[in-house]
Amino acid sequence: MPIYHTLGNIPHKRHTQFRKPDGTLYAEELVSTEGFSSLYSLVYHAYPPTIVKELGEPYSVEPKIAREKHLKHTSLIGFNIKTEDDYLQSRKPVLVNSDLHISLAAPRKSMTDYFYKNSQADEVIFIHEGTGTLKTGFGKLKFEYGDYLVIPRGTIYQMQFDGEQNRLFIVESFSPIRTPKRYRNQYGQLMEHAPYCERDIKRPTDLETHDEKGDFKILIKKQGLIYPYIYGTHPFDFVGWDGFHYPWAFSIHDFEPITGRVHQPPPVHQTFEGHNFVICSFVPRKFDYHPLSIPAPYNHSNVDSDEVLYYVDGDFMSRKHVVKGQITLHPGGIPHGPAPGSVDKSIGKESTEELAVMIDPFRPLMLTEDAVNIEDGDYYKSWIF
Ligand SMILES: [Fe+2]
Questions:
Q1: Distance (Å, rounded) from C-alpha 331 to C-alpha 303?
Q2: Cα 332 to middle of ligand 1, angstroms
Q3: In terms of CB atoms within 10 Å, which end of the chain has fewer, N or C?
């Protein structure tokens, strides 16, 4: 996140001697993405982050593709995804391409006996149900309904849930997740016309230094495999850090909608971007106020992108009979639009309570076996009236 942040103790000058009370040196580590050319932080560890004691056998978590090519409006009943005790096992990729993987997860238990690091992708975890704490070496981030947790690749973390009823909608991005470029000025600050600003960004707090030696299991994801590593020191042994590279959170409830006299196009809902896709938030808002306006969207032909909608809450104005956690996928190549009757029904309405997350990938998505298992097969006929 392009806001400078620091927690704990750091030396006055970077790359200089920084010593513990016993006179030995803390271990400095540069954490960065895109080589040395993008956002980075400097971390100070109680011990070097390199003390590998053992390697386990890697195993595959590669999505199993059920439908590689298709041209069919598709709907998935997301809350039918299987719940699992374990966090990593609960993550079920449903829609994937070479730019991003979209997963659903309903984990029941907190991570206690291992840590997780995604070395191949930034993660955006949308919290649909549940509360808890994202624990990292950078500090803690409490999360609740509506939060997007943005976790840059390489961040070692644990999810601690307060209860067993948790629903997550997860995007793994193989490029860095950013705020939309058009909302940032040349210095990186979010501008006045952006739908949110730095004040809305939640940053880690409560840095706790775990100065511990022992056996610490870290499951590291790279190229579709999980590599079990046993390290000799606790991964959360940071005594301090500073920089721009760290996990952060933004609540969908803090997204300020952009409205107009007539229907506004989807880009006004944009919240984040990655390479070849955008993530948008549809939030409660006043409808268009031209006297002849039609609040429902027009039919549209998204030839160059797929459209994924994840329904979170509220009464979705362009479609009836949707349930929480439902996903619709409108593939590029054929038009789609509001459900029969919803155009007339929208006229004269002053506001909507809808809450949804939309993802527009610019390359076609494939469906996995887990997706096909929760498919509503007749969705493509839902425009017949
Ligand atoms: Fe659409």
A1: 8
A2: 10
A3: C
Q: Give the Å distance between the CA of 83 and the centre of ligand 1.
A: 29
For CA atoms 266, 272, 278, 283, the dihedral sign is negative
pLDDT digits (tens, 9 = 90+) for 206-219: 999 999 999 999 99
Say whether 234 is catalytic.
no
pLDDT tens digit sequence for 155-182: 999 999 999 999 999 999 999 999 999 9
Residue 306, annotated as binding a ligand: yes
Residue-level pLDDT at 1: 63
Q: Which of 12, 193, 210, 263 is catalytic?
A: 263
* CA–centroid distance, residue 6 to ligand 1 (Å): 41
Comparing CA positions, the residue from 203, 204, 240, 210 lying closest to residue 12 is 240
**Residue 300 marked as a ligand binder:** yes
How far is the C-alpha of 271 from the C-alpha of 282, rounded, in Å? 10
Q: Which overall architecture, per CATH, does domain 54-63+82-234+246-252 show?
A: Sandwich (2.60)
- The C-alpha atoms of residue 371 and residue 93 are separated, in whole angstroms, by 8
pTM: 0.97
